[in-house]
Amino acid sequence: MAGKVFFSVSMSLDGFMAPEDVPVEDVFSPEGQNDPRVQQWMAKWSELQAWLFPQRWFRENLRLGEGGEEGVDNDVARATHERTGVSVMGKRMFDAGELAWPEDAPFHTPVFVVTHTEREPWVRPGGTTFHFVNDGIVSALDRARDAAGDRDVRIAGGAETIQQYLDAGLIDEFSVTVSPVLFGTGLRLFDRLDVSKVALEQVRAEPSPRVTHLTYAVRPR
User: Fold this and answer.
1) pLDDT at 1 over 70
2) CA-CA distance, 211 to 214, in Å (whole number)?
3) How far apart (Å, rounded) are the C-alpha atoms in residues 5 and 193?
4) Following DSSP, what letter does each residue of 121-170 receive, concatenated?
5) pLDDT tens-digit readout, 56-102
6) Which run of H or of E encompasses 6?
7) 121 burial type by CB count under 10 A (0-12 exposed, 13-18 middle, 19+ buried)
């Protein structure tokens, strides 16, 4: 039995999943660390993701040391990772991650990158292999489903890639972790979505002292 296609992201209370657009080479280069735009971007991003950093599963997965918090937030983070057989992402997310991820990239599964750039598969330690797909989101998803077997396919991001899959009617379910922060500007999760095509059914709501985890099934309208 085929698994679900889903995405899971953190979002500010006013609907943004990332701060203002800053070139990834600036964010992750030593020269960029003194740029006020980069400093503001990192401060907002860190505040948005602050719920995740202390969790035991997160620390274990990135080999940051023993210990960490347990509870609802840790359970959600671990369950999201464990259900994922394959990830799909856009080129922009990959470009940022290629600069930021450790050598042992934190997926430990195949990853399919939707891009116009031809490139041979990039094999990393720990079970992560990046495959580069040049013929669109449907082809990337077909390949991901084949590789995932009966596990789920996660559309990892970024916002534009998630929106494309939603618009195409290819998402079965999604989870949004709402952080109690306000960005004012940035990249909205649902900014260019054709909402006339999408109906939602709430599956569960799981509050914690830090955030609220909301999960919805996606139905055709």
Assistant:
1) no
2) 10
3) 17
4) -EE-TTS-EEEEE-S-HHHHHHHHHHHHTTSEEEEEE-HHHHHHHHHTT-
5) 999 998 888 889 999 999 999 999 999 999 999 999 899 888 888 88
6) strand 5-12
7) exposed
pLDDT digits (tens, 9 = 90+) for 95-154: 888 888 888 888 999 999 999 989 999 999 989 999 999 999 999 999 999 999 999 999
What is the Cα–Cα distance from 184 to 44, expressed in whole angstroms?
11
Three-state SS at 51:
coil
- Report the half-sphere exposure of 197 (CA within 13 A, side-chain side): 13
What token pair was written down for 175?
Answer: 């989870």
Is residue 88 within 8 Å of 112, Cβ to Cβ?
yes
Q: Is the dihedral of CA 209, 179, 80, 152 positive or negative?
A: positive
Contact between 68 and 54 (Cβ < 8 Å): yes
The helix (H) or strand (E) run that includes residue 66 is none
pTM over 0.90: yes
